[in-house]
């Protein structure tokens, strides 16, 4: 009887073990299937999109900076070429002046070499009468003045030619350097543009993977803030930006219907008659720095350690900005966007 009870207990333990193993295996399979089918929760997908968008925004602003650098070197090349042409023209004119004076200087030099009486002593020694002395002395002074004038003019023309030659040489060197630097900047621009396109493609792929509900949640509500009262370029820029609420964000867009962050800032200030650089990397050095406690409408707030995002302060702790892919130009609490890098005032 005891042996029978032992066998029964062993069968019960075996059954429990099998049941437990089956339960664990089923749970594992279900969990594995669920994770494989839906690797991201909605919040994770939106979070990944935000991170990808931030990286793409950084590269986009780097591309804008590379474009500005390339344009600056192209301008320097044009200036160097113009300076070269001007210097070479100066040299040509000075050479013509030299040649025109050379004959006269040569004649005067030959006259002195051949013993023409040019000294006051020789005039005194060869003058028969006081009147003759005065006549000869007067002629001598005229000749001496003429010689001095000719030599001074020839010397000035020679100096002008030499200076022009040096300026032309320096301008040619500047032009050559500008060509080299422009080539480097163009290569960097091409490389950054390629990187930007790759980053933007990742953002758009991630955005396309969101459901309609996730996209709506990610976009958030639009804003509808009316224009500010007042005058001046800063207020005009604020109102220009507020007038674009609801306009879609597009990487690298400069308006007037789509914008990225720095594109909106530059466009808004341009409407107010203020020329502002195209990208955040240049905008962050434009105007003058102010503290957050000093902010007033029109000041531009920059975000993140890279200063790769910005918006225009409208007062009341709010900024109007072009947020990111999948969102529209809107007003937001300025602290909710991210860590503030700096604040710049573009107007006096």
Model description:
The chain has 348 residues and is of the alpha+beta class. The chain folds into two domains: 44-208, Helix Hairpins, CATH 1.10.287; 225-345, endopeptidase fold (from Nostoc punctiforme). It is 65% helix and 8% strand. The chain has helices at residues 2-37, 42-113, 120-126, 130-208, 212-219, 233-242, 261-271, 280-283; strands at 288-290, 300-303, 309-315, 318-321, 330-333, 340-345. The protein has a six-stranded antiparallel beta sheet. The protein is elongated and about 100 Å long.
Q: What is the CATH class designation of the largest domain? A: Mainly Alpha
Q: Which series of helices and strands comes N to C?
A: HHHHHHHHEEEEEE
- In the CATH hierarchy, the architecture of the largest domain is Orthogonal Bundle
The order of strands across the largest sheet is 1-6-2-3-4-5
Return the average pLDDT rounded to an integer.
80
Helix content: 55-70%
Total helix count?
Answer: 8
Q: Structural class of the helix and strand makeup? A: alpha+beta
**End-to-end span in angstroms?**
104 Å
Could you tell me the number of beta strands? 6
Uncertain residue segments: 1-42, 123-127
Give the percentage of residues in beta strands: 5-15%
| Silhouette | elongated
* Tally of discrete structural domains: 2
Remind me, CATH topology of the largest domain?
A: Helix Hairpins
Please state the CA-atom Rg, rounded to the nearest Å.
41 Å
Specify the biggest β-sheet: 6 strands, antiparallel
């Amino acid at each position: 009887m005891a042996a029978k009870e032992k066998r029964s207990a062993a069968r019960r333990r075996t059954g429990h073990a099998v049941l437990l193993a089956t339960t664990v295996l089923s749970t594992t399979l279900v969990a594995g299937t669920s994770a494989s089918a839906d690797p991201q929760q909605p919040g994770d997908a939106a979070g990944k999109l935000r991170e990808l968008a931030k990286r793409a925004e950084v590269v986009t602003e780097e591309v804008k900076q590379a474009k500005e650098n390339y344009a600056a070197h192209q301008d320097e090349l044009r200036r160097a070429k113009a300076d070269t042409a001007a210097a070479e023209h100066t040299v040509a004119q000075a050479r013509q002046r030299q040649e025109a004076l050379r004959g006269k200087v040569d004649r005067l030099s030959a006259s002195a070499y051949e013993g023409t009486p040019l000294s006051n002593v020789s005039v005194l020694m060869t003058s028969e009468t006081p009147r003759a002395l005065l006549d000869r002395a007067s002629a001598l002074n005229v000749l001496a003045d003429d010689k001095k004038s000719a030599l001074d003019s020839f010397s000035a023309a020679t100096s002008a030619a030499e200076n022009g030659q040096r300026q032309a040489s320096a301008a040619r060197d500047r032009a050559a350097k500008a060509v080299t630097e422009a080539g480097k900047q163009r290569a960097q621009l091409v490389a950054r543009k390629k990187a930007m396109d790759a980053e933007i493609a990742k953002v758009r792929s991630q955005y396309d993977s969101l459901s309609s509900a996730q996209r709506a949640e990610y976009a958030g509500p639009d804003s509808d803030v009316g224009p500010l009262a007042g005058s001046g370029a800063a207020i005009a820029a604020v109102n220009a930006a507020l007038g674009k609420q609801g306009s879609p964000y597009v990487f690298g867009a400069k308006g007037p219907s789509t914008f990225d962050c720095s594109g909106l800032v530059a466009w808004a200030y341009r409407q107010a008659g203020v020329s502002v650089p195209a990208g955040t990397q240049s905008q962050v050095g434009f105007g003058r720095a102010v503290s957050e406690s000093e902010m007033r409408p029109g000041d531009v707030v920059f975000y993140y350690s890279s200063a790769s995002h910005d918006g225009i302060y409208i007062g009341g702790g709010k900024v109007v900005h072009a947020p990111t892919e999948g969102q529209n130009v809107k007003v937001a609490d300025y602290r909710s966007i991210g860590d503030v890098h700096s604040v710049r005032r573009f107007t006096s």
